[in-house]
Amino acid sequence: MLSPVTDPDGAPFWRYAAQGELRVQACADCGEPRFPPRPCCPHCQSFASEWRRTSGQGRIWSYVVPHPPLLPDYAEQAPYNVIVVELTDAPRIRLVGNLVTAPDAPLNSLSPDRIRIGAKVQAVFGPTGLPRWVLERP
Amino acid sequence: MAGLRDATAIVGIGETPFAKRLPEDEKTLACRAVLAALDDAGIAPGEVDALASYTMEETDEVELAKAVGFGDLTFFSKVGYGGGGSCATVAHLAAAIATGQATVGVAWRSRKRGSGPRPWRNTTAQLPTPAQWTRPYGLLRPVDEIAMLARRYMHEYGATRDHLFNVALACRNRANQNPAAVMYDRPLTREMYMTSRWISEPLCLFDNCLETDGALACVIVSRERARDCRHTPVYVHSAAQGLPAQHHGMVNYWNDDPLTGPAWTAARHLWKHADFTPQDVDVAQIYDAFTALIPLSLEGYGFCGRGEGGAFTEGGALEIGGLLPLNTGGGGLSEAYVHGFNLINEGVKQLRGTSTAQVPGAATCLVTAGEGVPTSALLLRS
């Protein structure tokens, strides 16, 4: 499986995720959240930023179900789902992830016909340190 | 300054055969396409002084120039973002020639995407997307990234798989008229489309472009010089690139309005500098790496309103005789996928009156580069 090839902007996200926290970058001056993280604020051009804790709640904005040809580790689990989640705390922050039945469940643990745009989801953290998502009402 | 409007013209086009696998390497194919385009124009290689291609092009200017015998080059540029750069190659040359930096420009693309590696399989190279936020979750390929937007588009606007089929069918029907098209002898039916295998739901096999080996080139000169060339000049009427504010490439999930993209930005500039409007376009060559890019582009370039791109495809609108005949050589979906360069050459053929699926009396043509990445577009006229 691919793990994140991170950079100085993105590294804090993954550090917090490893601790089981979903945080997003926000401007320390004007307060605007932004994603993906970047060196300065596109609203006020400030270089000061903070990592704001979120509730980890969101709604499914869209999803796909990939089928082969895929990289081998992913082909083994295909078809699986990839979702985009709109965060409740910051609706314009959308995170790509997987909808699973439990924090350590495989990518294909949930049947694709259970997925609906708009469904409420909650972030959970598995052994890999990647944020994953479970249905609020399974 | 007079600007770009009709200041330059495409006077030569050339291409190799298209196939899943060609025996020659990319450099050789590039040389063949470029020499064919120069021969078509009636211009000797020694007169070429400007070049433009894509950053993903593997044959560099030095290799090409010394192989085919170009003269001294005074302008050369490469445009980024994969298929988003296709029309910009012509636009850069038009600007260079209109401003006196060069006199004869060649744009080209040579690619063995059919028999060569799939770029997304390389896990060390960072594709032009912020990969750390997407790839670990199995959003691996361009088709996965675009399918995510396609699903949302269908949800918001009620577009259907039949709308996407209309796009695939129009391209296939034109390919069935074009002996050079990879899918020349392979008709498509609705049943084939609806029962084909998924690639990334909601997109199936026939929503994806071909994987092709091939090369193409075209020659650009000033309008004055164009009158002395072999064929009727095809004028570069208007040209634009487009990188919208807060755009994120194919994973455009992180701004206020992810279902608008670079087409909207390019279109605003393109029409501002044109003497005609979308309603006056006789034929369109719209970048079709995936069928789902067409409804978005139809909206972006002003052929219909927001959310109407799916419905626009109904009633044979994209066929010959329809509202907007589309990708008349077969496009990336059914002629060849060479990063959209075949769309440029097909636009020229239409305005010369020599297409294998000729739109009667075609005098204006829109050509676009990849939507969903920083893009470019051309308005051509005869």
What report would you give on this structure?
Chain A: This is OB-fold domain-containing protein. Chain A: It comes from Streptomyces curacoi. With 138 residues, chain A is mainly beta. Chain A is 9% helix and 30% strand. Chain A folds into two domains: 46 residues, no CATH class; 84 residues, Beta Barrel (OB fold (Dihydrolipoamide Acetyltransferase, E2P)). Chain A has a five-stranded antiparallel β-sheet with strand order 5-4-3-6-7, with no helix packed on it. In chain A, strands 1-2 form a two-stranded antiparallel ribbon. The two termini of chain A are 26 Å apart. Chain B is an alpha/beta fold. Chain B is 31% helix and 18% strand. In chain B, the strands form two sheets. Chain B has a nine-stranded mixed β-sheet with strand order 3-2-4-7-1-8-11-10-9. A two-stranded antiparallel ribbon of chain B has the order 5-6. The longest helix of chain B is centred in the first third of the chain and has 16 residues. Chain B is globular, with a radius of gyration of 19 Å. Classes of the chains: A mainly beta (138), B alpha/beta (382). The interface between A and B is large, with 39 and 36 residues. Strand 3 of chain A pairs antiparallel with strand 5 of chain B.
